[in-house]
Amino acid sequence: MTQISLEKCKWCNGSGRDYSISPNCPCMDCESTGFKYGKVAKEEYDRQHEEEMEKAERAYIQSMREIGKRVTCWELAELVRWIHPRHIDFSEGNLVERIKNFGVYTLQEIPIEKISRGDYEIFEEDIQKYASMSLETYPPIILGDVFGDKYDNVDGNHRVESHVLRGESVILAFVPDYETRIEDCEEEEEEEMEEFECLI
Ligand SMILES: [Zn+2]
Domains in the chain: how many in total? Predict the structure, then answer.
C-alpha cells in the first residue's frame, strides 16, 4: 500500500484559508483542507486518527480486564462514562452515585447465576451491540450489594443478557470491596432528624 503524504499545503500553510484574499476565504489550492494533496490526504488523516483512537480504546479496555485488578470508584465512573457516552441510563439511573457507594472494586470472574436479573428494562439493540463484540473485548460489568444470594447489577444488564444468549456461565465483573463502603452521611442525618422529630 502506498502511503498518502500528509504534507501541509504551502499556499495556506495548513490553515485551509486563503488569507491573501480574506480570513474567511477557503484555500483553492488544497480544497480548504490544509493538506498539500487535498481531500485524499484529509481522508487519510481522518482514517489514521480514527485508527489511533480505536487502538487507545482497545488498550484501555484490555487494561480494565485483568483479573484481580483493583480500581477506585472514580476509575469506574470513568469506565461507565466511556461505555455510555450518550446513554439515558447514565443520567437517569444514578449510575455514578451507585458506584460511589464503595471506594474500591476488584475485577473477578463471577458466575452469572449469582447475579440478579430481570430488575431492569432490557433493549434488544443493546444486547445485539454486545453480541457483536468478541468475549475478549467487552468491558467488565459492575456489581453492588448482595441481596439474598445474588449480586445487584449496577451496570451491565445487557452484557449479562448477551452472555446468557451465548451460553456463557461466567462474566467479568468489578465487585465492591465491601469494607470500603462509603456511608451516606446526609441520609443518616435525615433519619436521625426524623427520629428526633418523632420524640418531640
Ligand atoms: Zn491550502
Answer: 2
In the reported structure, the alpha carbon of residue 183 is separated from the centroid of ligand 1 by a whole-number distance in angstroms of: 59
pLDDT < 70 regions, the chain: 1-2, 86-93, 184-200
Domain boundary among 63, 79, 113: 63
16 CA from centroid of ligand 1 (Å): 5
Per the confidence metrics, is the pTM higher than 0.85?
Answer: no
Same domain for 135 and 165?
Answer: yes
Q: Do 90 and 175 belong together in one domain? A: yes
pLDDT at 103: 96
| Dist. CA 12 → ligand 1 center (Å) | 4
The rounded Å distance from CA 92 to ligand 1 centre is: 47
Distance 48 CA to ligand 1 centre (A): 21
Work out the burial of residue 141: count CB atoms within 10 Å of its CB; fewer than 13 is exposed, 13-18 middle, 19 or more buried: buried
Residue 130 pLDDT: 85
Residue of 172, 158, 170, 142 whose CA lies nearest to 79:
142
- 78 and 150, same domain (yes or no): yes
Instruction: Give 51 Cα–ligand 1 centroid separation in angstroms.
Output: 25
| Residues 17-24: contacts with CB under 8 Å, at least 24 apart | none
Specify the DSSP element, H or E, that contains 31.
Answer: none
All three cell numbers of 74, joined, read: 472514580
Q: Residue 99 belongs to what domain range?
A: 65-180
